[in-house]
Amino acid sequence: MSTPTVQDLAAPTVRVENVGKSYGDRTILSDFSLTLRPGEFVALLGASGSGKTTLLRILAGLEAHDTGTVEAPAERTVVFQEPRLVASKRVGSNVILGQRATRDRRAAASAALVEVGLGGREAAWPTTLSGGEAQRVALARALVRNPRLLLLDEPFAALDALTRIKMQALVAELCHEHQPAVLLVTHDVDEAILLADRVAVLQDGKVGVELEVPFDRPRRRGVPGFGDFRRRLLLELGVEEAIGAA
Ligand SMILES: Nc1ncnc2c1ncn2[C@@H]1O[C@H](COP(=O)(O)OP(=O)(O)OP(=O)(O)O)[C@@H](O)[C@H]1O
């Protein structure tokens, strides 16, 4: 047995035990359990419609679960697939949306914009931003709250491939720096491997397999073992690679 790390000994940030959730007579989650330790980055991987967003919404407090236990900190924020900026408010105000615009908060918003590569853009209107820039603002808005839990619901899915790669690197860097516990919901296997400490695969309403990602950071697709690990996850998802095997 390996020596427990500080992370292992700390109280978990998120504890989900035996959660069940149905819509009408359709069971979406059954007996779903997952733990996130402080600072841990977990990717929840699953086929379309498998219940990933439902679980994330339960953790965000946006959806009720039917059975089981959910413990998540109140200091949590969500970044959705679309940036959800308020068009009538400038970028700086969007970053501190819902909070009183004190001088300190405005300074924190400016610092968060610098962190996401949008320093000095406080006065810009959301309609003047590209999709990637708007998603950077959404990320700044999440980080400025210093969350203990960051919930990412396919935050790169609507971005073009190049912007997605840049945003993945930015999220990896910022999460490393700020150390929230992160749950990333995705159906992109590569993204899960590039970003997460651990990948949980959602199968039949529960976590079927959980695997530690065995690669050092910064991660690269080309490292030895990447292709095998990727194939293993794809098989768990019931996908056989036919074209362009890594
Ligand atoms: N409010 C709702 N009422 C009824 N059914 C719902 C509701 N929300 C989600 N569902 C259903 O629950 C199932 C799981 O949805 P969910 O969005 O959690 O899946 P997902 O794994 O995130 O899928 P995707 O990757 O396509 O976003 C889907 O079949 C969906 O239609």
TrEMBL record:
Pfam families assigned: ABC_tran
InterPro entries: AAA+_ATPase, ABC_transporter-like_ATP-bd, ABC_transporter-like_CS, ABC_transporter_ATP-bind, P-loop_NTPase
SMART domains given in the database record: AAA
Domain ABC transporter: 14-229
GO molecular-function term, one example from the UniProt record: ATP binding
Keywords assigned by UniProt, alphabetized: ATP-binding, Cell membrane, Membrane, Nucleotide-binding, Translocase, Transport
Name of the protein in its database record: ABC transporter ATP-binding protein
